[in-house]
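Aim 2, interim progress. The first record below pairs a target sequence with its structure tokens.
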Amino acid sequence: MKPDEILRIVDAIHRDKNIDKEIVFQAIEAALVTALARQYGETSQIVIVIDRNDGTISGSHDGQPIESAELAGRIGAQTAKQVIIQKIREAERDAIHDEFEEQVGHMVSGVVTRFEGATATVTLGSQEAILPRSEQIPGESYHPNERIRGTIFEVRKVGSRVKIILSRIRPQLVQRLFEQEIPEIADGVIEIRAIAREPGYRSKVAVISSDNRIDCVGACVGVRGNRIKNVVEELGGERIDIVRWSDDLQVLVPNALQPAEVDEVILCQMLGRGIVLVREDQLSLAIGRRGQNVRLASKLCGWDIEIMTQEELDQQIERATAGFASIDGVDDSLAERLVGEGFLSYDDLSVIEPEDLMEMGGLSAEAVDAIVAEAERRAALAEEAAADERRKQRESDRIAKATADAEAAEAALAIVSGAEPPSPAGHDEPAASNGAAESSGGSP
């Protein structure tokens, strides 16, 4: 291996593989050490140094210099070649890993090339990445040669390869799309403070402007909604609510629950919970379909949010006060203080910090342990009762459905045969209630 050949090899690998020259030099040195160890023995202390400027090789074993002719000869040439190839592949893998590791959380664009089951393989320039089913937006489908965008979720080394995993369900994708579509965000004038997302269904994005002259919400929506429309289209029609951020929870919580109108927000500091009071006609809107609106608002604010009307709150306060006062060791004054701090169920009381309860009631550690144990017992009983009620309701609904199906079949048979259709069953009986008793954490 001549000096000029070494320099030529190093330069070619550096340019073709984008690997630092120093890494290539070290790989060749390691390869020569491995090759010479076959001759001198594995226990020999072999040192090989390649001059980075002229490519000359010098070396020693056990402190004795090795002749240049021996180093430049064909001793261990095949072994050296194999080791060099292996080291270069490792260096190439490490370079690719480091390159994409720096892009974790960033958005990339690629072309779908093939599928393995539900997992899509996406080409990112010269590298391939995968988009697993678990990281795809529910309901989306992709086709070969289709260009898609996603964020780099994970990068890890697998043998001699680098596995790059993409995602389209992480909040970072929404943030990167906003940065791309809204110049004020890219410039830093508008800042995204929080994102809560349920992929494919709905996201809430909280924004704030550092310039009072710029309306952060209006800038994100764009003229006639053109800016937000592009983001929604990229996410397959996912609904996006843009919320004005505030450090004051009394302002942020109502903003996060839009489009519902909020009457009052009661913050329970000890529980990290916000009780939000709304009118009866706003209740379903505040909660959202299957609880989605309040769930996303809770994620956005970082607080548990419970929606109720004033009447429901008054009822819970009355039940909680009476229930807590019935526990040995809890007097009326302590029960009222607990309710005032937002503890409205036995479940709430069972997770109170013992030190807080000791301070509030002037109680001993033994008394606090007994109160918490009793609250846990009552919460478990309440949960069991609620679960039993739900089971009975499901059974009742199943029977009602079976009865309705049977009546429909009889009616259809009667029409076919020309007979008079039977009267609906239960005509003389009141209809069964459709509301199942839900667990409220063991409300007293």
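The second target in this work package is listed in the same format:
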Amino acid sequence: MSTHKVFYFSHAPQSVYEIIREEVPPGFELISLNEDSDDERKKKLAECAAVIVAARPMTREFIEAAPGLKLLHHQGVGYQDTVDVAALKERQIALALTPAGTSIGVAEHTLLLSLAVCKRLPYADSELRQGRWHINSLRPYSFELNGRTVGYVGMGRIGQETAARFKAFGTAGIYYDPHAALSPGREEALGLSRVEFNELLAAADILTLHVPSGDDTYHMIDEDALKQMKPNAIVINTARGTVIDEAALCKALQEGRIAGAGLDVFETEPFQPDNPLAAMPNVVLTPHISAGTRDALKTKMRALFQNVQRFFNGDELENRVKL
């Protein structure tokens, strides 16, 4: 039986490759990088029939370096800013996504960021380690989730998982989604009501984003949107960095027009330490890790390799993107 080589496009520690290899089925071989080298990427792409793409963009340059490539399988669902779709279409290379394994980790991370911003947790931790005891000085800037209104932009799988968790903290929920409306029963179960975008901006104490990158979501949280928000509101983004106009967000935070932000994604990644957000005590930053748990990776890879098997067995590919 021939072995199909599957290349993991991103560079990762050996401990990550070991988790992935646990899910590789018989008849397949995982090819990984020894170094974060584009020359090595091209060399290994040349011998593989399938590639797994995560955050590292798979550009035309790399697609052209893979003459035997038949399948590009995204580790998640946000392919719009990580895959050159036009180049795939020209070669008729299949593209599939992996929705499994993302929702719970991102929902939990959204709660984590919200709580950390509400209590200024990283700032309090950093100050305490330097001998400064802020037992009272943070009280005017800290608040609880209970009784707050959470505004969700996007109400797909992740939005619903997030809403279920926020509800347990005693929040009220409103959502805006131009593409989907929940059933009345589902809205009742999650404690949600559907509103228009401007109404959501004005009412939300916590604004959380759960939409993909795209022309219709680019900078949807811009200066105008931020001006409509409450001065005690916070913004949470575990979706894509381009959904927020980062310069406008910085300005709103510096001028005190909103109270804080929790960000896992950024317009430019990796995040640079000279970014003005890094110096703000009311901002919590994490390096695009909301779905980055061992549990999520194992779930994703199990589902992904089952789909890769389908493809090479000649069966219908699940979660295929129409090119």
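Residues 308 and 314 are 10 Å apart (CA to CA). This observation will shape the mutagenesis plan for the next reporting period.
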